[in-house]
Every structure is written in structure tokens, then in C-alpha cells.
Queue: 4 jobs
Job 1
Amino acid sequence: MSQKNYVVIGGSRGIGLGIVERLASSGDNITVVSRTVVGLSELSSVVHVQADVTKDKISASQLPDSIHGLAYCPGSINLGPVRGLKPEAMLMDYELNVVGAVKCLQTSLPAMKAADSSSMVMFSTVAVSQGLPMHASVAAAKGAVEGLTRSLAAELAPNIRVNCIAPSLTDTPLAERLLSSDQKRAAMAERHPLKRVGTVDDIASLAEFLLTDRGSWITGQVIGVDGGMSTIRL
């Protein structure tokens, strides 16, 4: 079986790093675009492109000639009451979560079309479907990601699949302040029907499935990986 080429935007920490580790274990070629190389030091086979997707222009020459899968992992947890929400913060959330994804797709698209088939995975949040308080900015930006997912899936079919994963709270560096004590962790776990917060691998395993040929008949979907929060009431 020939090696495949995957690009992971924001793949040096958290869920992105989890995806990189899973794909690398299969012997495929991984290119990571991120601001830092924090978690990549032990993955010698990974090519790193240092860039901030909100500020820097990524060149197609920095990416493989064919791309079988693109994961866009940057995200934000900008929480707070609407009375204190600044337009600048909302624009930053939108720039990072939506505009950055489109820019990376545009750069990657020729190489994705060069592959026999390709897949893109983006990330939303359970807060879009559940209307959680204090989540106005991030839920608005991630709601746009869900709309973008469906639009791109329609436009790029049949050779490029586009899907979105909508996690609940996951134990990543981005969520450190929400899980900074045993009491906070227990309270967050209790909110979920499965009585725990998510792990990186809970999310990365599904992302790997969707990126690879195992998810070859799935497109245009927003899939909740949220401990039952979006669908179950106990």
C-alpha cells in the first residue's frame, strides 16, 4: 500500500497532535503547519512548517504535491458574558476558526484534487447545538464552521469529502483553565451523561477515521463526540 500525504494545521498540541501521532503510526507522510513544534520533537518523520494561519501566507510549495487529507485544528475557547464581549474578540474567533480554514483549504486544494480522493476535517463545539451560556463568541464562529462544512462538502464532491467534529470539553492545553483543579474536573465530568470529560484520543480517533479511506462514504456531516451531552438527558 502506497504512503499517503496528510496535512494537519495546528498539529503540534492537543487534538491536532493526537491526529498527527495516529497518522504517523501508520507510516504515512505528515506535514504539520503550526506556530510551534511543542509536541513534535519525537516524531522525526513529520515535516513542520512554522506559520500562524491568521497572519502568515502558506505557500503551496511548502505542502506535498498531493494531499489525501487536511485537518484544520486551530480553535479558541473565548468564554464570557455578552455584556463584556468585544467586537474585536468576535472577529478574532471568526478569523481563526473560519477564515483560517478557508485560507488553508484554498492553498491545499490543487494538491487535494491531485490525489485520487481526499478529505478535510474541521472542528466545531457542542455549544453550537446546545446554547451554552458564556459561549456566544465561540459558538457563533463554530456555527459558521458547521455551515462551511456543508457548503464545501456539496461544492467539492465527489472527490473531496468534508466533515466536522463537534466535541464537548476535552482535556487539552486549550482547556487547562477549565480543568485546573480536581473540583473543576469533577464538576465538568458530571455535566456529561458518560460522567467524564473527553480525551484527545476520543476526538483524534474519529478524525483519523474521517481523514482516511475508512470514512470514504461520509461527507457533509457534523458529528458530536461529546459524552452524550448533545442528545441525552438523564
Job 2
Amino acid sequence: MSNNNINMSSKGKFSICVLDKDGKVKKEKSIGNTLNVVTYEGAYTALIKTYDSVYGVYYANMGTGTTELTRSSTSLGSAVSGNSSTDSVERPGSEIDNLDGTSTLTLSRTFSFTLGSKVGTFSEVGVFDGSVLIAGQLIKDEFGSPTTITVLSDEQLVVTYILEWIVPNKSQLIGTGTLTDENSNTYEYEVYSQPYFTEYTLNDSNKVTRYNANSSTSDEIGFYAADGLTSLYDTGDLGDGFYNNVVHDGLGTVTFTTNAEVFSPSQGAWTGLTYLSFYSVSSNVSTAAGVDDIVTNTAPSTSYSRYPLLLKFVDPLSKTSSQSFEITASFTVTL
């Protein structure tokens, strides 16, 4: 089988300003639009770790370290105590179609430290979700050289972060292969990745994602004819689940692997099987299963269609009542 990874990328920048006791900006203590790194663990936490919330609850913190942060960094070089206020973050309102099968999600948040709570000379800044460093970097001047910023007891520190995430918003062909049965019949198939959000209309308020590490969610498989709508079989009848095992290697590669779903000879014969569609619960088959668009090979746009893949048999598959059928899905996402 040939495979292509599903790629998601990210970048960020921050600005820092210091306010006097009257709330006026001290221009000599302002740092604008400095590039930083989004860490591997930060991207995983924000985009994959939970299925029902993009991003999380963020706060900013400062440090006195002097070493450039990298994507492998897990903390500031030398963080100081005392965090900023927190801000809950959901699916952003700024979602732009890049017209290449992806969207750019832009997150902009301003984090304030209370007056006099952050005093000292600082050389680095980061934004966190819990203990996870989402993004950060050394403070730099207009020439890109490391510098520091000093905050006095009668001053207030404010940090603004802008993070950009690239996620798929359309179905994309990511794999092809051939299935050969014991009678030497061959069936060519294709695997299509799906939009990142279950509701794939741009700027939709729904926040549930298909790419998630919530392995406790029990998915099911629907078997469909060439029209993508005529149901041939539904695994909800089996009474078991189709689960994801999600592993992040810490270096930006996330591997999704399912358990094996086995269909015995006693579970009947299929003729003309073209699509395998994945969804979350049998009670929502009418809206979650099947194929929304057989031209673009896209699964339904609904919160119950949570799986990132759709499988299409180019040569429709047949299964006799004497044959068994087993499927295991595996794919990777590069952050």
C-alpha cells in the first residue's frame, strides 16, 4: 500500500508591552511581533489530544533563560513563578480557506499580569496549556538579537500571542492498495483523509474534530454501495467497538492505529461494496454514516462522523458467506 502523511503545520509570534500605573503603554518597553516556535507537544496538545475542544485554557509566563527554544522544548529555559490570567480557547472565528485543501486557523489572545505581580528582568516568554508549553521564545529586539525587558513594581506586563494552525478542510487521497482474497480475486482501493472538523463548513461554531486521541470513543463501520448511501452492512449489529490507539512520538509524528474488526462468514455476503464509512454511534447512522459526496469522497458533515478516514474500493468488493473479512486502519499525522 502506498501512503502519504496527513500534514498539519503551525507558527506563532508574540508582542509584549508594559503599562504604567495609569494604563499607558511605555513605548521604550514594547516588543512587537517576534517569531516563536510552536512545540511538538504543544501542537499535539492543541490539535489532537482532545476530541471536543480545539486548543484549551491558556496562560502566559515569563522566564530568564538565554537558550533559543526549539520545537522539542518542553519548558522555558528558566521560568519564573506567577502566571498571567487564563483564557479559554475554542474553535477560532478566523478560519481562512487556503484553496489547497487546508484552512488556516488564527488564534490571537492577550494575557495580562496584574499590576506589580510580574516584577524583574525577563528574557523569554511562553504560552501554556496546563504544564504544556504550547509556544515560546527568547525576547528579541528589532534586529532579531536576544534582549531583555524590565518590569517595575508600579508597572503591568501584557503579552499578546498570535498562533496559526494549518488543518485539512477537504478530503484528500492519502493511500492506495490492493486486497487479494484466497481465490486470487484482487480489489483496488483508495483511502481518503477527511476535514479536520466534523462540521467542515468554514467558521462553523462546532468544535468537535475527527483527528483526536479520545480512544474511549467507540466508532462503528458502515458498508455502502457505489452511491455511498445504500447500506449493505452496519457494524452496530456486532455489539463491539472500533477504537483508535493514538501515539505521539514527541517529535511531531502522531500515529493512529485501530483494533482489528473481524466479520465472520456467518455475518453474510456482500456484493458491490464500494465504501467503508466510519462513525461514532449506531443511533445516529442516519446522519453520520455513508458518504456525503462521492465525487470528492467526503464523509458526512456531522458531529457523529468522527473518524478521519474514508475507504473506497475502486473495484467493488464482494464477500461470500464462506469468507471472513478483517480491517485494521493505520495512518500518521505530521505536526
Job 3
Amino acid sequence: MTAGEAAERRPARTGRRPGNPDTRRAILDAARATFAESGFDGSSIRRIAGRAGVDPALVHHYFGTKDDLFMATIEIPIDLPALLRGVGAAGPDGLGERMVTMILTVWDSPAGAGLAGWLRTALADEGRARLLREFVVGSVAGPFAASLGLPEAERDRRTGLVMTQVLGLIVGRYLLFLEPVVALPPAQLIASVGGTIQRYLTGPLPDGTA
């Protein structure tokens, strides 16, 4: 019997094979449904894999971590955690200006149009907004603040204040097109908003007793 004849007589393999686009699609569909039902924090790779009918190892093979899988489900065209790791790598000094520089660079790039559409959808849909909050707080802002050595008791407060500036800048310049913000040269935005972000991250904050 030749090798070709032996191959023809072998029983066909069952199940999806690695590389099958149907497998990837099934995982994404299961992830979207699970995240929608249970939120980011309440979802697990094992639960998503069970819903998709695949082994959890296959989910990791296609998407890596739960963070990576979530990013794939919302189709955001940037790797936000990686960008923030780059911003924070040089330490706390000048961090605010580096963050605003990163924002302007990304949103003024070809990816900006896709980001604008994605953010409009997220802000208009409470389910997506909830998922975004959980992801940003748990997987982006929290680790970012921890990497800067911020006191644990202050992390949520400081990162929340930073997000008000970040979202305000993005919404004002790229979604609402507020003329004073749109007209400002990047250097002025970097200095103005960056200085406020820097204070929120490393400067003294009111104690709340007044």
C-alpha cells in the first residue's frame, strides 16, 4: 500500500482544525455574548471557550489574554495597553505631556477615523460603555497607575481625574470639533492639557474636607 492510499483510508479528523476561520469567528461570537451578559470582570477564557465549543488553549492560541480577546471583540484599531506602557516607561516626569502627545499622534493618524466611530458607538450604548469602564479601570488604568508607583489609596482618584482630561480632549477635538480646541496648535494642547494631567498624577490634590 502506498503512502497516498494509506492517507486516503485514514478516518477523517473531527472538529475544527487550527487555522479554520470558523473557529476564530465562533470564539469572537462567544466572547461578545459572554462579555455582554457578564461584563468584562465576570467573564473568563474558560467560560468563553465552553460557549464556543473549543478548548481554552485554542482561545489563547488565537487571541492571547482575555484583554487581547476583549480588544478584538470591540475592534479598536490600537493596542491601548501597549501604548500606555510606552508612555509610562520613562517614569513620572513629563508623563502628562507624553500622554497628550500620544493621544494627538494616534487620533491624527489614519486610525483616528476608526477610533471616532468606535467611541461614538461605545458612548451611545450602555452595555458597551459598561464594558469599556470595566476594561479601562481594571486592565489599563489600574496597572498603569501601579507601574508609576502611585499610592494605592490614591490610584482610583488620580486615574479617574486623568480620564476626565483624556476623554474631554478626545471628545472636544475629534467628536464635537470644538473650534477653540481644534484651532489650538498641538504644542499648546500638549503643554496645557499635559500640565493638568501631570498634576492629577503626581501633584498635591485637595483633601476633600473643605
Job 4
Amino acid sequence: MHTGIDHQLAEHLNASLQVIGVNVNAYYNGALLSYRPIAAELRKLLCDTQSRRDISLLPQCFPGMQLHSLGGSQSMIDGHTVLYMPGLMSFDGKGGSEMEILFNESGAMLAMQAWLDQRLFSSSMTLREFIRSVADKEGAHADKVPNDTLKLTKSVLFPGDETLAAKSIIAIARYVVNGCAIRALVMMERMNPSLRKDAAARGRGVHVFDLHKVCHMGVNALPFDFISIDNLSELTLDDETRVADLSTHVKSFDPNSEMLLMTIDLNRRGRRVYCIRFQAPAA
């Protein structure tokens, strides 16, 4: 099955996803500086330019792609703001922490340029400026003089010497990989009627989308496993809300016109339950 993305663009996209997947895995295994090559890939995907022309990869692969807005409220950030945290941090009581929610995935979606122009952490810092600062000064180059963006985001430390800069790059990467996978699946469904037939034949259950496998195998493969309603106990989820959501959706969706999907995030946790509605067959 294929998404319809141009072959060369798909090759570049798959390379970026693989670099991100490998380095996110390394980060969670203690290689805390592996956020740097991830930042370089995020620049390539989201905000790359050449001779002042936007050559970012995601808009080329997925024209019109929209992304969810940051959490919190942009109106809370003004010239007096020292540090504004739009994300939700969780702490496990064992010295570990996680940036759980950086983007409001139940809220509004923005076009790419508007998404990049959102203010992040302070009134003078945008998502674009943050990604490019980490990528240009640490990911692709070795700049001895940090700018104000790096001074701020690397001065905020969490347990285990993890910086706000590193945690934010990892959170952005996890979100972007998830968005790429879902968008590629939707494109694939539109091109391949067999996907609808396969989902209907499997019946009531959930397709599990492991984003590590997506990063490894690429968007033209999109590997996912199917777990029937009788075997949902095989899924290990640490969030009871997600367990309840999944149970409710499995009982109510229509397998003849919809596909139930759960993504497993790059931090190995269940991320979100999606109901992919198939397009009506052409008359």
C-alpha cells in the first residue's frame, strides 16, 4: 500500500522519522543530548528555508497539513512574562519527569505558518525560533555563543539534569511523528479501498499503531497490529482514562465504515484513540 507521496519526498520523510525514532529511544535510555539531532530533523520537517524560500518537508508531503495549537493561552504571554509553560509536566516520584501535553489535541488546529508563529515560553520566542535555535546552534552546528532562547530553555532544569530545551524538543517530535502517521494513514485510505475491506473483515476491535515501528518502517508501510474486543486485556496502558475511552469506543464504532486506532507514543505509552471514518465509495 502507498500513501501517494512523491517517492523522493517519502524517502526524505522516512529518513527523518527514522532519525527521530532512534534518537528519542536513545533519549529515554539516558542519552540526554540526543535531542540535538532531533532538532535538526524538526527544522527540516517544519521550518527549513533555502535562499529565503520555504522548503520544509511536511508541507510538501502533506499539502494543507494543520497542527494543533499549543496548550494554555497565548494571551497570557506578554512582555513581562519571564517563563510561561504551555505544557503539562508529570513527575513519577522516582526522579523522573515527562512533558505530557504540549499541544491541545482536542482544540483548534492551525495552518503550518500560524502554528510556527505561536509564542512559546516568552513573548519573544516562537515555536519556529525555538526549533531553529536548537537546530542551528546545537543540532547542525556547534555555536559557542547561545542566544536568548537557549539561555532561557537550558537554564530550566528538571530532575536528572534534563533541560526544558531537551524536553520540549522531544515533546514536539513525539507530536509531529504522531501527526505524520495519522495523516499518512488517511491518505492511504483514500487511495486504497482494500484498507476499508480489511478493517470490516476484522470486525470489532482496535488497530494498534506503534509509532516506533512507523519510524523504522516508514509511511508507505504503516505497520499496525489488530487486537479484537475479546483480547483488549493484552494492551498495557498506564492511563485509566485511555483504557475507559478505548473500551467505550470499541463497543460503539461501526467496523463497516470506521476504523478504530490507538497510537503508542514514542515514550511507549498509549497516546490517543482515533476513529478513522472511511470516505464513502465513489458512485
